[in-house]
Prior knowledge:
Number of domains of chain B: 1
Number of strands of chain A: 24
Strand content of chain B: 15-25%
Radius of gyration of chain B: 21 Å
CATH topology of chain B: Alpha-Beta Plaits
Distance between the termini of chain A: 41 Å
Number of helices of chain B: 9
Shape of chain A: globular
Largest sheet of chain B: 3 strands, mixed
Largest interface: A-B, 133 and 119 residues
Helix content of chain A: 25-40%
Structural class of chain A: alpha/beta
Strand order of the largest sheet of chain A: 5-4-15-14-13-6
Mean pLDDT of chain A: 87
Strand order of the largest sheet of chain B: 8-1-9
Low-confidence stretches of chain A: 1-41, 82-87, 778-784
Order of helices and strands of chain B: EHEEHEEHEEHHEHEHHH
Oligomer: heterodimer
Helix content of chain B: 10-25%
Number of helices of chain A: 32
Radius of gyration of chain A: 28 Å
Shape of chain B: globular
Amino acid sequence: MLKWTGALAGAAVAGAVVGVGADMLLRPTPPQEVCPTPPPTISYKPPLSPQVQDRVNTLVNGLVASHDGESVTYSVVSEWPPGGYLITGRVVKVHVKNGIVTAVEPGDYVNSGIAVEDKTIPWKAVLDDQIQHRPVARDLAISGHLYNPRRMLYPMKRVSGSRGKMGGRFVRISWDEALTTIANKMIDTQNKYGNYSIYNNPVGSWQGCDANGWASDSSAAHQTSMKFTFGVGYGGGSAGTAEVTAVYDAKLIVLWGWNASVTAGDGVYNAQTGYHLRLARERGIPIIAIDPIFNESAQLLADQWIPIRVSTDVPMGLAVANVLFKEDLYDHDFVSKWVEPNGFQKFKDYVLGNTPGPDGAIDRTPEWAAPICGVPADTIRAFARLYASSKPTYLVLGEAPCSKQPKGENAARLFEYLNAMTGNIGKPGTHSSDGGWPISPVFAVKMPFIDLGTSPPTFSLPKAPHNAALFMNWKFPDAVMLRYKVDNGQMAVKDYCNSIGLMPGQPLPNIRMGFDNVAYVTICNQRPQTNYTYQAISTLDFWVSLDSNSMDPGGRVGDIILPMAVWPENEPTFVQVANGFFYMPRIITPSGEAKSLTWLKVQLANKLGIGDKFSSKLSGIALTGTNPDSAWDTAYENLAKDAYNKWASANSVSMSWDDFRKVGYYMFPIDPLSHPASVQFAAQIQQNEPFPDTTNSANHVSGKIEFYSDWLATTDMSQTWWGGTIAPTAMWEPVWSNYWTPAEFQKYPLLLTTAHPMHRMHNWTDANALTGDVAGAGKINGEDLVGSFLYLSPVDAVMRGIKDGDRVRVYNSSGQAILTALVKPTLTPGIAHLPEGRWNNLNAAGVDVRGCANNLTYADRKNPSSSFPHMSICEVEKY
Amino acid sequence: MSTNANQYGFYFNQARCNACHTCEVACKTWNKIPAGPQKWLRLFKWYTGTFVDVQMHTLFAPCYHCMNPVCVDAAEGAMYKEPKYGAVLIDPDKATNSSLKAAWEACPYGAIVFESDAPTAAASKCTMCIDRLEKGLLPICVAACPQRALDFGKIEDLRSKYGTNTQLEGMPDPTKTAPAVVFTPIGSRKQLVPYDTQSALQLLSTSPNGTTKIFNSPSDVTSVPDGTVRRNKLMMKPTSVEELMYLTVSDND
């Protein structure tokens, strides 16, 4: 296989003049012959002598020719699965030569040739999202991923070592053998262990056998809070999720634990959101960042940064509510109209100390909150007054530091209450605070639909609070391991249900086999306490890894590894961006025998004898393990063409399929589509519709915003999906791994935070040398490379005798890692910061030298809200 | 400052840069440079101040294609000041390690980057994406910037649009080299609510329930011993490849 960097190095060695990269690299020159006469004087600055000008022309022509012969194709980046991140996909132009991706440029479908768009185009065009959706570093570096020498290119089976452990040996097998083996195992497993025995079955709804989790890794606490406060699911509400351009209507913007410049919205690091917020600041809208870390947003977006101790957003928020009550600053009109009054009074009683929380009946004043959250009382009080008097305020509570922790629903609910108390819901310039997820403007663009001929599923899992499932998403290892205890009579069924997030009376999972989509989230790397996940996998009968990610930790522990395609290799789909839609064509033939997820599903369904049910239109394509697979490609392209033609005639679009294929996108005229930025609950607040009860588990019946749930107060929660109690109103319930468990805290006095990284989508593309250049980990399975950092504050470093650049060991009772300390004054003292998604990378002694954050988290903490435990406690020592 | 009518240059708005390194990666992939230290475009990030009064600085550092390119004078005939755009170019057929070392010594910005510290190491530098200019395109870094922190054009036009600042805090004196660049520095902040740093540090010095010391006194936070923080100033001319890689790798993964 032609390797990207290898091709370059080869050219340089041969001295061939093939493009700028090779040509511009200086090669040592042989010793010069002694010249008998002095060389002629040459001017190297303009005006150049004719000889020098000739030489310059030659150099420039060589540079210009460096992209000769490349084809250029529009596409939209989709990290997994194909067609994901529909709304704000990052648009690219992919250069290809000889079937190899040679470069990626930003797509300039609008404003071509304009660098600083806001300085050039009309302001209305900015509001209408007529700005380029520019890609980010890892999109431009996709060749480093596609042609990574470590990439899995062929189906493999393990021939030594054991399931659930790294270090096994694998040999290449054919796709036919791989899928036959897997299908036989699936049939056996279903026959022997029932219909809930195959975890994450790609065709489970048609085979009639599946076992899956509920609650999102990211937004679980906000999904929960939205139900109990507003009666809708996450991203629900009459206007859908809030659009980012609503920020321009605000009088104050509060980024509470939200590093919008890096992690905002779709795709994690959707550059549009940070750009809009920066423009808002440049237009004079005051912005406050409240965050444990002085991050990029605190620098770029905020007028003022208020540092807060990790996990103490609830005490500060309660103190803000306390000031709003005591000084009578809350919005009486809004509250009387939209907030359910009995619950409002109960919340008020709690905040004023008339009724107790778990820590007693306490007047939740700024003076009470200050020592907990580390923010001076005067600051809290002044913030509350500013917030109450700045209408509208756009306050967003971020997920990662605030709600992705045990009892995370308290923070999520409380900030919904605060936005209601200040009247900042449903109006231009507001945000309901459902988790820091505003999106680019959404236009009602009709999209072609590619019809695979899929029959409706004949099987589905029970309806859990957030999706059909059998256990909380992050409880997979408990679902496996505790089931053995149930079978051995060591655990009661009800306790098992409560432990894994399953409503008693529902069918029990009996997982004996599973599939891991090793893409941006592999459960081996991205779930709490990696060792426990490995342990659970090791007890199963069979494990399949779908690897598009160069043998990451998920890929190394299966019985069979399947090589999966990456976005430039996937079959076509249509993707909406702003007022248009783009074609995501198959740009290159997949490397080796990598295949798409759809291909895998069709061929697996065929092996199971259910091919017709999954796709009547593709099931007839014979299995071809090699690439290119022209029968498949032609059939799929025809389905896309049919979809387009059908859509074009229904919508009177005259652009032909051939033209569409050539251009790569179709833009609807903006004028009829243009609209003011939509915000959530606009229909309720502006048009007096009641808040709905669209969920089946919250009993939200008042039609108003609820500050207190009678259902939560009166229900035996052990009989529900939640498994444990959720406070009836947002309360301060100190969490497990914190200052509140002194014995643990004495041993591990640093709070470990694990925010989203800038250059990975979770664990996606952690072995790409081209992003490794800027994000570390250019290679794996080696000693530490530059970039495997643990971030510490100066005072915490000094107290431990650590300087920037020192090797350090970070550890707790769950695990450890050996990393390089990077000391920066931007962290609130008392934090160790380790961005999530780095791959578990064990050295010879079995110690992780890359820094997989989940080697240091805990899987055994009970957490009724379903929110993932994204933080931990640790100690750090010089190594 | 006089300028060549044909001099093109870059504009960098430091107040908009979030150090996402997209410019740097765009440069490497477009120009087909292998992973490693030959970073034609270096993105530096450093901090000044101490907690709570901290400032994050970034610098977009390609070649600034100086109007008085001292590197060209030093490079023993291996470099040119190209007349159409004012780009400073290396002639790979004429260059030797020693001529480019001399040019690197002369350049106050460290714009020439070596593939290793070996005495025969190859070196290269930013070409202003002259190949793209010839096709009527923006340099790839400018076209790619997701924050719209970069612009490119005739230096006269950039100055009329963005002013004449050619030196951000911590950067070398531009007088001699006259870099073809315009900068907007990070702006000032306004305090929206009162915040007393000393009382905040007092609060943060123990755990919330007062049982555990986090640090002894506020001065432990505000007086940081030398050497504890390395990214506390701009260092544009790291003396080894390892140091260059260290200083230009993201500190937010």
